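[Primary structure, fold]
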Amino acid sequence: MKKRLFFFALAIVSMNFLSAQVVADFEDGTTGPLTLHVMGCGDFDNDAIHPVDETFMVIDNPDASGLNTSSKVLKFIRRGTDNGGMPWGGFWANIDPAIDVTVNKYAHVLVWKPAISPLKFKLEGSTTLETASLNVQAATNEWVDIVFDFTTLTGPYAVMALMPDFEDPFTTAADTEIFIDNILFNDDPTPFVPPTLVAVKFSVDMSYQTTIGNFDPNTDYMDVAGSFNGWSGDDYHLTLESDGIYSITVDGLAVASLLEFKFRINGDWNTSEFPNGGPNRTYTVVEGTNEILVWYNDEEPVFGGVLADFENDTWGVLTPHVMGCGEYDNDAIHPVDETFMIIDNPDASGINTSSKVLKFIRRGTDNGGMAWGGFWASCDPAVNATDNKYIHVMVWKPMISPLKFKMEGDPTLEIESMNAQTETEGWQDIVFDFSSLTGDYGVVAFMPDFVDPLATAADVDMYIDNIQITNSPNPISGIWNNKYDNAISLYPNPCNTSVTIDLTKDMNSVVISNLMGQKVLSMENVQKGTVNINVSFLNQGLYFITLTDSNNKMSSAKLLKN
């Protein structure tokens, strides 16, 4: 288990009290704007005899734990009665610049003391006020936050005094050591409390990277670098647990803190996740168990994504055969390309502005057409329905009619679409639910006009595009228009080093995937406006960019990288 402690006290201050005025935190080895003078310490009050640094000195934090894990603190040798110590033993100091208590009325001081005793704080100016602490010191030998109330004062004050052991009468004979840190003013009387620290387990699955040759478990190692370790993973090497999963547990991370991080191969930023300026992973620490498990670079070994998009004038992984079209089912008489042909997109608008689509001459009853007219196809590689459960097909049809899709294997399932066709003479994404299936399927079939009995006598042209399997049941519904006059615009396309999206609303996610469905870039919680995405690290080829809004509505377009 990796130990990691941080200075959370100031993090809490900056997070919750943005208007706080820090008087001195001693991190630079000095007392900052304070010019200290010793008081209530006998001869040590006279700096001509005893310089201040014989009584007050900035040192390394002797107990970097709990509320205060800072590097430097102020040590106070509190003089006992044997050395002339008085109840008001402590310091007074000039403050330059002066502290203004018009808004920030409460002084906070972290103290570490070996004994319980009262504390006082004083501001000297147009109105002078010496006050005891609001809260009672409740612990010894650990850091506590002591608060002093100056709500009756206003304006600037250039002199302050701290008396951290105000016993009256004072009876302690020997000198004692007290430590002081983080003197600040804010508008909240609530004492700071130590953050809740928990362990976070970071795990990454490298099995797919091993399969595709990017990672050799015999010679390579994994680390994690992030905001919690100064972006240095040198001492944060992961260990192999099982099945290609590498893990490390980091202790001492604060609940509610936001972590940013990336996994790296061999500690090299050139082989990190999402390289060349890609997004960091983020995680907000919660109370209880914190376990993070991701695929490296979000690349999963599942055949998802596109079965066929027809952009390269091919059927992709499909080898098609005509069915339900009378004599046209016999490719010895009528080759497949007499019924199905890849053509230029006849209506490059709406959700589908791609260049190429599949034209289907749906045979009518005059040519032997049947209800199940369409195609069946062998798939190489087979379609895996273990993780991705939803087949998406974009269709353009001149009439409304049912659609069916079939996966043949063990078992075989033929189903109608989840969503009804509502568009004619326009592109619509039709979704089929195969969540009851798992494993590999080597044969699929698509029937885009399943009217039973079929009564249409003449042949009808319809168009098909972007047959893919994903883990989303939501139809793609966003508007992607080449004229960029709708909800979303994407340019330039094709692109070289970057692509720009203009969003008119916030998006839950923006994802770029390759033709195998593997994520190559993912962005979360993207705000509306102009978003510039660096794609220089992508190889030349075709990609899909998918946006999901707050209602889980998806919009997708093809992106060509030169």
The longest helix spans residues 8-16. DSSP finds two helices and 37 strands in the chain. The two ends are 46 Å apart (CA to CA).
